[in-house]
């Protein structure tokens, strides 16, 4: 009897067609991960140790950060090895067009977060006796989602606005009514 798991099936990652990132991007990521790990390790060592070192509150963060640092070193080593094996400019820096799109997305998300802070307001109202709070979250999220989908998706504008409105409404109802958590963009 054969196994239901075939030898020709293999895990290819989140996007099988994506391949490796550009070596320079992996080096930058490794640098940031190592810096973050060092900060966490130093902060965890500064925590007070009320009992023994084995029960110290900073032990788990220290071990997690050390593991992150080790993985970042492996990532950096892999990137250096790939970088030394190629002279092709597109291989070294990756797809510049895709990187521009990601920068645009990061700028849009940054503008969204800034708008939630700057345009903060709250309006209280009732629908059929059920209290609701309208804050900057709803209009800013609707506009941001529509704009992001308009830049990155080819669907029709009415479809994008319907999806943005649906998501904003579902997030609002879920957090305000189900979890009783106030949304950002208020006071």
UniProtKB/TrEMBL annotation:
Listed transmembrane segments: 27-47, 59-80, 101-125, 131-153
Xref: Pfam families: TctB
Residues in DUF1468 domain copies: 28-184
Keyword Transmembrane helix among record annotations: yes
Keywords: Membrane, Transmembrane, Transmembrane helix
Protein name: Tripartite tricarboxylate transporter TctB family protein
